[in-house]
Amino acid sequence: MITPRATHGDSSWFVHDRFGMFVHWGLYALPARHEWVRSRELINDADYQVYFDHFNPARYDPKEWARLAREAGMRYVVLTSKHHEGFCLWDSDYTDYKVTRTPYGRDLIAPFVEAFRGEGLRVGFYYSVIDWRHPDFTIDAFHPLRDQPNVGELNEGRDMRRYAEYVRNQVRELLTGFGRIDVLWCDFSYPGHEYRGLPGKGRVDWESEKLVAMIRELQPDILLNNRLDLPDAADFVTPEQVQPAGWPRVDGEHVVWETCQTFSGSWGYHRDESTWKSPGQLIRMLVNTVACGGNLLMNVGPTALGSLDQRAIDALIIYRDWMKLHSESIYGCTQSDFTPPQDCRLTQNGQNLYVHILAWPFRYLLFPGMADKVAFAQFLHDGSEVQMDDITDVDLEALGLEPGTLALSLPVVKPDVVVPVIRLHLR
Ligand code: GLC
Q1: Which residues' Cβ are closer than 6 Å to ligand 1?
Q2: pLDDT for 143-185, tens place per residue?
Q3: Residues 355, 319 share a domain
Q4: Ligand 1 atom nearest to CA at 240
């Protein structure tokens, strides 16, 4: 089986745990129409201020979020400490654009960290190196002021050197003020992305080398993602809103990876978005990911009140109900070297091979070349035996199959779980 390239930080827990929760929360929960609303609608500071002035998530109860995450089978969490809008969820010494200056008036991160740790989850921070509010951050392709006629003038005096220092100061706060942090998820670089003469941004702008050196010094075990435009410094890659069909590689080498996904088409709370994924899609995304040796970071976007939308809770419950019976085929598992039968995905942990049946066949599940390899087969949801059929080579031939094919005899009716799983005990 594949062993991915070694990481700088400690990835041993990460490749075991496989399933985490992403939390996108900020002022954008109030407009409730995508976390990029400032950029998309070209909203200036004055007009965006209304959300700051009314930020008061009185129902914030991170213990409840943490409980739902743990029950869903998630083992770690990554919280947006600051998204592109620049608003900080903690009491940073380096800005007034932070939660403690809103009507809510209290730090959100310490109680969050405590709640999730209390449920046994590891904690990571997302930090946006993009900042549409900071006065030194130069206007570029995504900035809400990009189409101002006097953009050249507006950029005068802005100083990315000072901004890079601000980033280091803030990341230092995050990595020293909240105990052990397991993941730092920085977002994002776009060095070639020019817009009307405004250059993109990357490692030079963030001073990524200095930033990474500081991160490694403060939290040597931390896992750092790959969005600082410094590929060799990254511990894991982050395909977003796509489902890899194989194990991702960098320079030909398999790497630790995590895909981040949403329940619907937005990261921040989006009231009117309706492309919510079906239960089958949700479970298949998790299964597909682990079957390709990766992790799934599934996002929730809490509301302006600090609660989780019922649609998000329902989606978490889909994971809860499935994971309660099937987590064994996720935790500690990875891509298998065996070839899956039609419409199936395989994960493996040592001598246990897990067959996830995405479309229910009638009535054999066929494994070419595996006739002698399996000692016993049983469903994960109830432990019941799945009989290995004594199918003769003559019969196999009549079915168009090769000798040596293992045939599992399935019940006609699919078990009442979203994706049934059979555990094969390999000889
Ligand atoms: C992005 C987006 C964003 C989201 C992130 C999650 O690059 O800018 O809003 O936070 O991906 O992966």
Answers
A1: 24, 35-36, 187-188, 240, 260, 267
A2: 999 999 999 999 999 999 999 999 999 999 999 999 999 999 9
A3: no
A4: 12
CATH code for position 373: 2.60.40.1180
b/e burial code for range 250-265 (CB count within 10 A of at least 16 → b): eeeebbbbbbbbbbbe
Q: Are 39 and 185 found together in one domain?
A: yes
- Whether residues 223 and 118 share a domain: the answer is yes
pLDDT of residue 307: 98
Nearest-atom number in ligand 1 for the CA of 36 is 9
Tens-digit pLDDT profile for residues 119-129: 999 999 999 99
Mutation pick for ligand 1 pocket among 22, 242, 267 (CB with most ligand atoms within 8 Å): 267
Statement: residue 356 has pLDDT above 90: yes
283 and 340 in a single domain? The answer is: no
Q: Looking at the predicted structure, is the pLDDT value of residue 391 above 90?
A: no
Cα separation, 336 vs 1, in Å, equals: 6
The pLDDT mean for the chain works out to 97
Q: Which atom of ligand 1 is nearest to the CA of 128?
A: 10
Considering the domain architecture, whether residues 197 and 152 belong to the same structural domain is answered as yes
Q: Where are the beta strands (DSSP E) in 15-121?
A: 19-23, 76-82
Crossing angle for the helix pair 160-176 and 208-218, to the nearest 10 degrees: 10
- CATH number of the domain enclosing 132: 3.20.20.80
Q: How far, in Å, is the centroid of ligand 1 from the Cα of 247? A: 22
Inter-residue contact 138 to 160 (CB < 8 Å): yes
Which of residues 274, 302, 333 is at a domain's end?
333
Last residue of a domain, one of 318, 333, 348: 333
Range of the domain at 263: 14-333
C-alpha of residue 8 to centroid of ligand 1, in Å? 24
106 and 202 part of one domain: yes
CA of 215 to the centre of ligand 1 (A): 21
Q: Report the b/e string of 22-51 with b at 16+ CB within 10 A.
A: bbbbbbbbbbbbbbbbbbeeebeeeebeeb
Share of the chain above pLDDT 90, in %: 95
Ligand 1 mean position to 383 CA, how many Å?
A: 41
Atom 3 in ligand 1: residue holding the nearest Cα: 267
- In tens, the pLDDT along 88-122 reads 999 999 999 999 999 999 999 999 999 999 999 99
Residue 2, domain member (yes or no): no
Q: What is the pLDDT of residue 410?
A: 97
Q: What is the mean pLDDT of residues 20-46?
A: 98
198: Cβ–Cβ under 8 A, 6 or more apart, which residues? 138, 139, 140, 141, 143, 146, 151, 155
Same domain, 54 and 140: yes
Distance 67 CA to ligand 1 centre (A): 25
Q: How many domains does the chain have?
A: 2
Taking the centre of ligand 1 as the mean of its atom positions, its distance from the CA of residue 250, in whole angstroms, is 21
Do 91 and 236 sit in the same domain of this protein?
A: yes
